[in-house]
Specification:
The complex is a heterodimer of chains A (about 325) and B (about 525). Chain A is an all-alpha fold. Chain A has 12 helices and no strands. Chain A has 2 domains: about 60 residues, no CATH class; about 220 residues, Orthogonal Bundle (MetI-like fold), CATH 1.10.3720. The longest helix of chain A is centred in the C-terminal third of the chain and has 38 residues. Chain B has 3 domains: about 120 residues, D-Maltodextrin-Binding Protein, domain 2 (3-Layer(aba) Sandwich); about 140 residues, Alpha-Beta Complex (Dipeptide-binding Protein, domain 1), CATH 3.90.76.10; about 220 residues, Dipeptide-binding Protein, Domain 3 (Dipeptide-binding Protein, domain 3, Roll), CATH 3.10.105.10. Chain B is built from 16 helices and 21 strands. A 7-stranded mixed beta sheet of chain B has the order 8-9-10-1-11-19-12. A 6-stranded mixed beta sheet of chain B has the order 14-18-13-17-15-16. In chain B, strand 6 and strand 7 form a beta hairpin. In chain B, helix 9 packs antiparallel against helix 12 and helix 10 packs antiparallel against helix 13. In chain B, about 55% of the residues are buried. Classes of the chains: A mainly alpha (about 325), B alpha+beta (about 525). Chains A and B meet through helix 2, helix 3, helix 5, helix 7 and helix 8 of A and helix 1, helix 7 and helix 14 of B.
Chain lengths: ~325, ~525
């Protein structure tokens, strides 16, 4: 197992190298000029050109790529073209809100969606099943930003129960931190809940048909025990896989949610950097997201062995 | 019942925490929470002409001269000045007791270095420095200009509020190459920038600079007069999502939102806790810029003919709606209400729109159905609105239009390309400039006629350059106004761009704030009732 983990972690290096090459090349060919954005609308062509030279944007592709890779090898993601701050610092400033949003969403989504899916499978064909499936369709169909605006309007502006926007760091207390995350987490989690609930229901339906479930019933096991101890554990592998895949959904959804609720996270940082063509920031954030995604997949793979002892690496 | 009790308990638990955070209230009495128009990405106001950086600049740095609501220069850091030798020798004396935010005194040498750095970037500054034989600091409080010939606009140049502004920085920072941002923000103005609290894309924070010495006399107006600070702290909260900003203002999480989007303004106006006010009477003027290097707009006669198709009402309605108090449709080369605005040749813009006549004129001028490539920034609603109306206008007069819609950052790159439209260039793009950036020939970059060295579009207009040079030498306002008529006539004859109307951007703030000054967002004089 240990050797497997080490192998997998080492395997991230070529993956990251490919991502780095891909991101850098895409940005190189993509239209956009940070020098023109820095100079502003009224700058003359000469001003823009001089700024481009001072930023080194007139250097050839290979020279720029080589310099960037060399810096990365030293753990330096570069300096933002616009803010003049190290990319690492900018990521550090923004990582807590995004991490908080994702963790709260994940906990909220799993703790709601899994029981929903289990109940839907248990009561298949009844109004409860239909209600869960109806919610799932709704969750898939309504965009995150619409859910976000509706929640903000009702619970923040009309009822004044929760903050309408912003983020309070965890260091300032759990309650204000959590308060700021409730609405964004529900908005972001709506798609995620729908996805997990559907997969849980489908997998549970299959498992509940198995012989060992019939045996458990014959032995007189209670319904909760059958559902959560016997069936759910055996249905866990596909559910965990979907939860893992869904992390990518969360990363994408966080960009929109952070905008709607003015949360200063990595999603917003990415959008701002793309709009301005702040290449070092885009490259740094995409590399980070890729690394996180590779790690999440590793964790999911390791969790398989926990739920299904037959799986060995 | 039990569920209801649970909900009530949860709400009760939440409310004290919100109060402790200052959310849902207007915040502490001496803290102002402000939502600027955009992220403060670049901190150096000389490197960029972005308005948001100019706003930041006025909080952090002071200027030698301020700009009044009458568009005149008034001493600010300067105590006064003397003009000798028929205007060829100008001596400016600094006020006593001025300090930078690092505690060092403001010296004339700092001002000289700051003027040089600003003059390298600013069009008016470049004219000033070109006429300057000597710019020196004979002592710590004296700045000396020795000019090759008189420059009546010297004080106006030092006072101008259109970016880049001549802010005074310490000499060690002002020595930085004007293409490179300064590495440290050390101001001379009423607010100190707290670099440690800055989170790009989220927050910028300023605190009152205790050692700032406001002018003793005068009335605060725009950037002139005493800059008395009644706030301890000003927080800028960056909110790119306009709905989030609107909600934050309505909930009282923030005090002031600089640029509410037009479609959200009616909702804010209905809220009795919110005041909507137009702070900049010069507004924003829309322009459609021609690329004069390539057909069909390499022919002035075609550009000129299109003036007859411009329906400024249609453009402005698309941008800000039908409320006529928010826009004007009689806009020429100089924004209405400013000293140089005049009616010379305006009939071509204000007369009856005759599309058939325009069609005939462009056909007679030799328009052969060439494709016209329009650059449309689709990530800025106001720019997209005027561009879409512009595209329709060109189609109505029979032009073949190809719309290239993209993010502004991508279009800015394409805009710089001089190649033919089919080879990745362009024919026309649309933008808005603050009225203060157009209000005289010294600041209006779009009027330059220096060909390849001119602003994007690269018109060659030797007569315009002559008139501009004469305008710099005009001894008084009356002479400037006479020349402005000639300049407007020439601009409408050459038509380097089409004026598309002027709209006024309302700002929105919580009731209870008072002392808000006209002009760009300024944080002195401002206080809570």
């Amino acid at each position: 197992m240990f050797a497997y983990v080490v192998r997998r972690i080492l395997a991230t290096i070529p993956v990251m190298a490919v991502v780095a090459l891909f991101v850098f090349s895409l940005l190189y060919v993509a239209p956009g000029d940070p020098a023109a954005v820095i100079a502003g609308d009224q700058a003359t062509p000469d001003d823009v050109e001089r700024i481009r030279q001072s930023l080194g944007l007139d250097r050839p592709y290979l020279v720029r790529f080589g310099a960037w890779v060399f810096d990365i090898m030293r753990g330096d993601l570069g300096v933002s073209i616009f803010t003049n701050l190290p990319v690492v610092t900018m990521i550090q400033q923004r990582i807590e809100p995004t991490l908080s949003l994702m963790v709260v969403t994940l906990i909220l989504a799993v703790s709601i969606a899994v029981p929903m899916g289990v109940v839907a499978a248990w009561k298949v064909g009844t109004w409860m099943d239909r209600a869960v499936m109806g919610f799932a369709v709704l969750g898939f169909s309504v965009p995150v930003f619409v859910v976000g605006y509706l929640l903000a309007y009702v619970f923040a502006l009309e009822l004044d129960w929760l903050p309408v926007q912003g983020y309070t760091p965890f260091s300032q207390g759990f309650v204000p931190w959590f308060e700021n995350l409730i609405l964004p987490a529900i908005a972001l989690g709506s798609v995620y809940i729908a996805l997990i609930a559907r997969i849980t229901r489908a997998t549970m339906l299959e498992v509940l048909q198995q012989d060992y479930i019939r045996t458990a019933r014959a032995k007189g096991a209670g319904q909760p025990s059958i559902l959560f101890l016997h069936a759910l554990k055996n249905a866990a592998v596909p559910i965990v896989t979907v939860i893992g895949i869904g992390i990518a959904l969360l990363i994408g959804g966080a960009v929109v949610t952070e905008s709607v609720f003015a949360i200063p996270g990595l999603g917003r940082l990415t959008v701002d950097a793309i709009l301005r063509r702040d290449y070092p920031v885009i490259q740094g954030v995409v590399l980070l997201f890729s690394f996180v995604y590779v790690l999440v997949n590793l964790v999911i793979d390791l969790l398989y062995t926990l739920f299904d002892p037959r799986i060995r690496y | 019942m039990r569920r209801r009790h649970l909900l009530a308990a949860a709400t009760a638990a939440a409310l004290p925490a919100r109060a402790a955070l200052g959310q849902g209230t207007a915040g502490a009495a001496r803290v102002l929470k402000f939502v600027p128009q955009a992220d403060l990405a670049v901190l150096d106001p000389i490197v960029t002409t972005a308005y948001v950086t100019r706003h930041h600049g006025f909080a952090v740095w002071d200027t030698l001269y301020g700009f009044t609501q009458d568009y005149a220069a008034e001493p600010q850091m300067a105590e006064g000045h003397s003009v000798e030798n028929d205007g060829r020798r100008v001596t400016i004396r600094l006020r006593e007791g001025l300090k930078f935010h690092d505690g060092e005194p403001v010296r004339a040498a700092d001002c000289v270095a700051s003027i040089r750095r600003w003059g390298a970037r600013d069009p008016l500054g470049q004219v000033l420095l070109a006429r300057t034989e000597e710019l020196s600091a004979p002592d710590d409080r004296t700045i000396l200009f020795r000019l090759s010939r008189p420059f009546p606009l010297l004080l106006d140049a030092l006072a101008k509020t259109s970016p880049p502004v001549c802010f005074i920085m310490p000499e060690r920072l002002a020595a930085t190459d004007p293409r490179q941002p300064v590495q440290e923000i050390v101001g001379s103005g009423p607010f100190r920038f707290l670099a440690d609290e800055r989170v790009p894309g989220r927050r910028a924070v300023y605190e009152r600079f205790a050692d700032y010495v406001p002018r003793a006399e005068g009335v605060p107006t725009w950037t002139a007069g005493p800059k008395r600070v009644h706030l301890d702290r000003v927080e800028w909260h960056i909110m790119p999502d306009t709905a989030a900003a609107s909600a934050a203002l309505q909930a009282g999480d923030v005090d002031w939102w600089e640029n509410p989007l037009g479609e959200l303004q009616p909702q804010l106006r209905r809220n009795r806790n919110i005041v909507m006010e137009i702070l900049d009477p010069t507004g924003f003027v829309g322009i459609a810029r021609f690329n004069t290097l390539h057909p069909p707009f390499d022919r002035a006669v075609i550009r000129r003919a299109l003036l007859g198709a411009v329906d400024q009402e249609a453009f402005m309605t698309a941008v800000i709606g039908s409320d006529r108090s928010l826009w004007r449709d009689d806009v020429g080369i100089f924004p209405p209400g400013t000293p140089l605005a005049n009616d010379e040749g305006m009939g071509v813009l204000t007369g009856t729109r005759d599309i058939e006549k325009v069609k005939r004129e462009i056909a007679e001028a030799g328009y052969g159905g060439e494709k016209v490539v329009l650059l449309v920034a689709n990530d800025f609603p106001t720019l997209a609105a005027i561009a879409n109306v512009g595209a329709e206008m060109l189609r109505r007069v029979g032009m073949e239009v190809e719309v290239v819609a993209d993010q502004l950052s991508a279009l800015l790159q394409r805009r710089a390309r001089r190649e033919a439209p089919a080879a990745g260039g362009w024919n026309m793009f649309f933008t808005f400039w603050s009225g203060l950036d157009l209000f005289n020939p010294g600041v209006n970059q779009a009027l330059r006629g220096t060909g390849e060295r001119a602003w994007f579009g690269w018109p060659t207009m030797p007569r315009m350059e002559e008139l501009r040079a004469q305008w710099f030498d005009a001894p008084d306002l009356a002479a400037q106004q006479r020349l402005a008529r000639d300049i407007q006539a020439e601009a409408l004859r050459e038509a380097p761009y089409l004026p598309l109307g002027q709209y006024f951007q309302a700002t929105a703030y919580r009731r209870g704030l008072s002392g808000m000054l006209k002009g760009p967002p300024l944080f002195w004089n401002l206080q809570r009732a």
